[in-house]
Specification:
Chains A, B: It comes from Cnuella takakiae. The structure is a homodimer of 157-residue chains. With 157 residues, the first copy, chain A, is mainly alpha-helical. Chain A has helices at 5-20, 29-36, 40-52, 70-73, 77-84, 88-91, 109-125, 136-143; strands at 57-59, 65-67. Chain A has a two-stranded antiparallel ribbon. In chain A, α2 (29-36) packs across α3. The first copy, chain A, starts with a helix and ends in a 14-residue tail after the last helix. Chains A and B meet through α1, α7 and α8 of A and α1, α7 and α8 of B. Chain A binds a DNA duplex (30 and 30 nucleotides) through α3.
DNA sequence: TGAATAAAAGACATCGTTGTCCTTTATGGT
DNA sequence: ACCATAAAGGACAACGATGTCTTTTATTCA
């Protein structure tokens, strides 16, 4: 499936935080989980991890929550993938053969190196900020899980 | 990681069988597992599945084992991927959003549709037979797991 | 018919991912 | 100081992918 669920939750979480920065300094996990339709405690674990890795800032207590810096907005998606899924997709043989390389290629080596190269390029050259340029409401819909029928988020903002 | 271990084992198993067809009518699971460096019983399960799906033929008892038809050699890799991993990679949003599509795209939709399209094309247009054209010994090395130093398979054939 | 061989079948174990729950720690407001 | 809030931390559960083991079924050969 290319990415883990963890990566998906992490990216959507970060995007949601980024999107809310003009409204509030900190976003709470509860709000994120509800708006995104994601398991609350699992998302909490992921966020904690990202905080530890310096990708997010967190503040405990009332009015606390998560926030992110401009530096994070400029990070390539590859960095996030590294923190969640690791880079096995790019560093390992698709058939997981240890000895596979250009001089001793597995049967799929060259075809897949091309694909992996293309994918890596996207992940390297696309930043968090690059994903953000859109109408805010529409954007939130596009990262929420449920089948959106136009009625759910309208009255919250 | 793009493909599961199961897919890798399945493909390598099929390729090994295909490669042995000029020497013996049937290939035994024991031999496959040893030569490929793959867990024997797990490989057995996978082969059983492929037999049930019509991709392989099996015969029980002495001199029995697995064999495959020319039709199988002409099958695209996508068919094997479907039987093992399913086609979620192509049919689902990379972020697993149910509502994601061209008119309501997730933030990664268009970049990833391109990658997925490229990958799908490779899997659709490449057949088992396409992977086979090589020196036999060299080819077996290329699908064996261990780090090959030139000494391991030499005395077996 | 009996013995050996090999796949099929199914029970069970391990492990990583995903997910839940409860307790602890930090912070802000009163 | 006390209370409420919210993240951090850790224990544990559920599940699917992966892997092992034993029994059953089919086939060959003598």
């Amino acid at each position: 499936m290319i990415f883990s669920k963890t990566f998906g939750y992490a990216l959507r979480g970060i995007l949601y935080i980024a999107l809310m920065q003009d409204e509030k300094r900190f976003v709470q996990i509860e709000e994120m989980a509800q708006k995104l339709g994601v398991p609350r405690h699992f998302l909490g674990k992921i966020m904690k991890r990202l905080v530890k890795e310096g990708m997010l800032l967190s503040v405990k207590g009332p009015y606390g929550g998560y926030t992110l810096s401009d530096a994070t907005l400029q990070m390539p998606l590859l960095r996030l993938e590294d923190l969640t899924d690791g880079l096995g997709t790019f560093n390992n043989c698709v058939l997981r053969l240890r000895a596979c390389n250009a001089t001793n290629p597995c049967p799929l080596h060259f075809q897949m190196e091309r694909i992996k190269g293309d994918l890596r390029r996207v992940m390297e050259t696309t930043t968090i900020a690059d994903l953000l340029h859109k109408d805010k409401k529409e954007f939130i819909n596009s990262i929420a899980t449920y089948e959106f029928d136009g009625s759910m988020l309208e009255n919250e903002n």
